[in-house]
Write a structure and sequence with these properties.
alpha/beta, Rossmann fold, 9 strands, about 35% helix
Length: about 260
């Protein structure tokens, strides 16, 4: 699958993978800060953003997409950074292709199976409930979403996937039906016999429960040299809550300063 992407800068390649319901735009600000020292690649994962849609939606398929992306763009030994779902894609790919990856950074996700989270199903249900007939503006969509999603930040996040399909109509870029039909795969754990025996950095949001102490044995099973750094006042969206701290951690781990 040929993924849509954004690219900034020159130098050693860095690929940043967004999370569920996200898109490459979520990482543009931080990507541009890294682009002073690196060639930064921000793909939209399948069924997200401007990348193609497919009924197949699981970590093995997305890891295959990433392999094709790296080959197509001739990216040699890239550094891979993944947040949330993108972090699981990054882990699956790295375990399947340990000789391809230079360094791995996983942002606020573990390789474990998670219980279903009602918030994800609320978001999907709310988005699928929108009837775009008679919708004239982005504000109309936001007003309809408010009855189901009260948090302004969550609505702003998912509204990034709203686009003007024609001059007078709107639609979602997300393939909501494929995502909805495959949520079991998204909550599933990483399946691999592989081990990545290079240093790996996990960044945890201190206000998030996505990386827990009881996950550490499984993290260490796959990534024996893993190091976990916690940003205490950040939630799951660590890079949005604490961009400067994330940039400084990246700089330390990658050995090149994140630009201002």
């Amino acid at each position: 699958m040929k993924l849509f992407y954004r690219q900034f800068g020159n130098g050693e390649p860095v690929i940043i993978l967004h999370g569920l319901f996200g898109l490459s735009d979520n990482w543009v600000t931080l990507g541009k800060r890294l682009a002073d020292k690196f060639s930064v690649w921000l793909p939209d994962l399948r069924n997200h953003g401007q990348s193609p849609h497919s009924p197949t939606f699981n970590y093995h398929a997305m890891a295959d997409d990433l392999f094709e992306f790296i080959e197509d763009h001739q990216l040699k030994n890239p550094i891979i950074i993944g947040h949330s779902m993108g972090g699981k894609v990054a882990m699956q790919f790295t375990l399947d292709n340990p000789d391809v990856v230079s360094k791995l950074i996983v942002v606020d996700i573990s390789p474990v199976k998670y219980p279903d989270r009602d918030a994800h199903f609320t978001i999907i249900s709310a988005m699928m409930s929108i009837n775009f007939d008679g919708i004239h503006s982005r504000q109309d969509v936001d007003d309809l979403l408010k009855s189901r999603i009260s948090e302004d930040s969550t609505r702003q996040f998912i509204m990034k996937s709203l686009y003007r399909k024609t001059k007078n109509t709107f639609d979602w870029r997300l393939n909501l039906s494929a995502i909805n039909n495959n949520m079991d795969y998204i909550f599933s754990g990483i399946e691999s016999e592989g081990v990545f025996d290079k240093p790996v950095l996990f960044i945890k949001g201190g206000l998030s429960d996505y990386i827990q102490d009881n996950h550490i044995p499984q993290i260490k099973q796959f990534f024996p040299k893993a190091k976990i750094i916690t940003i205490e006042k950040a939630g799951h969206w660590v890079h949005a809550d604490a961009p400067q701290e994330v940039c400084e951690i990246f700089s330390d781990y990658l050995g090149k300063e994140c630009s201002d």
